[in-house]
Amino acid sequence: MQKQTQALFDKAAFQTSVEQHLLTTYAQTPATATPRHWYLAMSRALAEISTGNLIDTEQQLAAESCRSVNYLSMEFLIGRLTGNNLISLGLYESVSEVMASFGQNLTDLLEEERDPALGNGGLGRLAACFMDSLAAQEFPAVGYGLHYEYGLFRQSFEGGRQMEAPDAWRSQEGYPWEVQRPELNQKVGFFGQVEVYTDETGAERRRWVPDMQVEGIAWDLPVIGYQNHSVYPLRLWECRAPAPFHLAMFNDGDYVGAQYSAIEAGNITKVLYPNDNHEQGKTLRLMQQYFHCACSVADILRRHLAAGHGIESLAELEAIQLNDTHPTIAIPELMRVLLDEHYLSWDAAWSVCNKVFAYTNHTLLPEALETWSESLIAHLLPRHLEIIFEINHRFLEVVNAKWPGRDDIKQKLSVIEEGEQRMVRMANLCVIGSYAVNGVAALHSELVKRDLFPEFDVLFPGKLQNVTNGVTPRRWLKFCNPALSTLIDEKIGTEWPVHLAQLSALADFADDATFQQRYMAVKKANKQRLADWVSENMGIVLDTDAIFDVQIKRLHEYKRQHLNLLHILSLYHRLLNDPDFDMHPRVFIFAAKAAPGYALAKDIIFAINKVAEKVNNDPRLGGKLKVVFIPDYRVSLAEIIIPAADVSEQISTAGKEASGTGNMKLALNGALTIGTMDGANVEIREEVGDENIFIFGLLVDEVLELKQQGYQPYRYYESDSLLKASLDLLLGETFTPGEPEALAEIRHNLLEGGDPYLVLADFADYVSAHERIDDAYRDQAGWARKAILNTSLVGKFSSDRSIRDYVDNIWQLKAVKR
């Protein structure tokens, strides 16, 4: 297919298209154009190809009445598109030659692209990998998200503290890959009241009359199938006010009033996850979620009806996958449309609705299970609250029939949580309203059934399933690690990017000394690339012979970056105070953003940065220890960090991480995991073997037992001298001269605060696991063998396999080849 695509590619026509965009779109000539102008013109010319294929794919799927999946997610962390799209189109070399004819280097041009700020962490990156795999395998799909103006935030550090600034990812010129689809725009209402009326048949009906209306502007980004001609849309909704501009008010000097509705509407898609530690933020976040769902449901129904299908057949041709609970309001929204606009009976509407939705659960943390106050929903979406009440009423009748008189079970399973402020439990609504519910790793799915939703599992046998997450090998090996990809091609052929299980053939070379040397030379070159970036952007010089130890993920207590920090402090203490202690040089690399309102997470970032300042400039350490916290973590940085990693930190408290996908990306690129028996670490261990992973810490049941016994962190502190010395370094002025209490909050949280994620309980075993890593790395041939086996034995963790699991067990799709 790649050769076919290259043969069809007209270099001269593409060259002309680039020149035309340079002149007519960006008003530049070759003499005046900057590298950014060349990047934009090149990408616009490429987008013409992908947009044509997108429309052709849509038309083919409509003509063939294919069953599709609609993937609803508040995040799609897609990363830069241009380089990855060139690989999927099979045009990387050809386009490189065309741009060279203009005197431009393609690699440099690709650096001009800013990551689209459409996501935060693993949830959004998973959605992006899944869309890539759907297109690669040609399973009909539409991704639905939001067209955020600023996304989360652009992170920087001042005095070691996280600073947040707007991330204007589109820039003034716009984003060259997106195309606006005005014919798909939707109207969405908010607030208002519910009216009761009698229709022409004499039946009493209800309808919602909103007080505020906004418009959903449709933007499509292309999801390009790997070396096939299928292109699926990632459809992003931007919120604008549909009301006309009030010229009279503006002329009278009321500038704000003239534009008020536009300002209010624009806020809905201004940023990803507006801070919700105040009432206005909560309202805006729920408005954001409903806007997303209302636009998406309306578009799904538009497509279905336009193809000539009846509304009752919706579930036969469409599945809607809810990526976590953020799109839950789509369930009552679809019910509202079926009841109030298509006049189905409740039973008929529920029969359709209950066969359309499937739900992916991403968390076992009770505090992370989303709830909304009943009063807020009543104010913002009054008709939806009526429908939620009716769903719950009918469901509780089913519960009562199963467990008569068991009010405790009814209270636990009810969509409505009683209390001083009644809350709507979105996860419960998802389980009730979906035909399938899945966890994202084998351990997680078992814990969902055992601990989170045991009664639901009894009530709906077979509904709760498992689909272990995966990552796309196109971006997370072929694109981000080209040297290793070339080496793999040479040994096992070029089909592995779509058949990742073929990597198992690399295991035959794990003991081959020549292959080991070539594999480790690739790793060394990748470490040098990262070291160069750190030197150029942060002014820190790294030793590429050191162990590169990486923890890159969202900053959260349960992910335990502060456990990693304590270990660094222990190494610092031992290097300065134990003359018999020796270690191989180690570089600890962090990258993470903390939610703006998450004080302790921001304290942990501050502490790591202050420790880094001291450690990196302490001549007594002899270069044995370096710490780097890379700011503004994003996909394009992950593409540099992951290929360079020797060690992958996956150290969440057992039972807290649903799956993880960073662990998969790092193992695929030859990093050895140090991790707890949590999430997908369990399955990675099964695949690579005990000798090629470093497992430590309490197991899930041991965590539960310790908490039931009454966990006392001071007992660990008082009985472990190394732990005590490490924690006490957070007191005083060692890392914060003139500010003796600046780092004390972390220590307070771990001791007086009860150490909720058992950092101190796992500390000693974590230190021991790191000592095993140090020993293993000194045997370079043995380490190379372990790294090669990690790459070769994780083929299971392709998102292609994840999608096939969804297709076979949940969505029931058939591939449509173009």
TrEMBL record:
Tell me the GO BP annotations in alphabetical order: glycogen catabolic process
Q: What is its EC number?
A: 2.4.1.1
- Write one Gene Ontology MF term: glycogen phosphorylase activity
Q: What Gene3D superfamilies does this protein's entry cite?
A: Glycogen Phosphorylase B
What is the enzyme's main class?
A: transferase
Please provide, in alphabetical order, the Gene Ontology terms of the cellular component aspect for this entry: cytoplasm
| UniProt keyword Transferase, yes or no | yes
Where is this protein found?
Cytoplasm
User: CDD domains of this UniProt entry?
Assistant: GT35_Glycogen_Phosphorylase
Q: Cofactor(s) for this protein?
A: pyridoxal 5'-phosphate
> In the record, which positions carry N6-(pyridoxal phosphate)lysine?
665
The UniProt entry's sequence similarity note says: Belongs to the glycogen phosphorylase family.
NCBIfam families per UniProt: P_ylase
Q: What does this protein do?
A: Allosteric enzyme that catalyzes the rate-limiting step in glycogen catabolism, the phosphorolytic cleavage of glycogen to produce glucose-1-phosphate, and plays a central role in maintaining cellular and organismal glucose homeostasis.
Write the protein's name: Alpha-1,4 glucan phosphorylase
Organism whose genome encodes this protein: Photobacterium galatheae
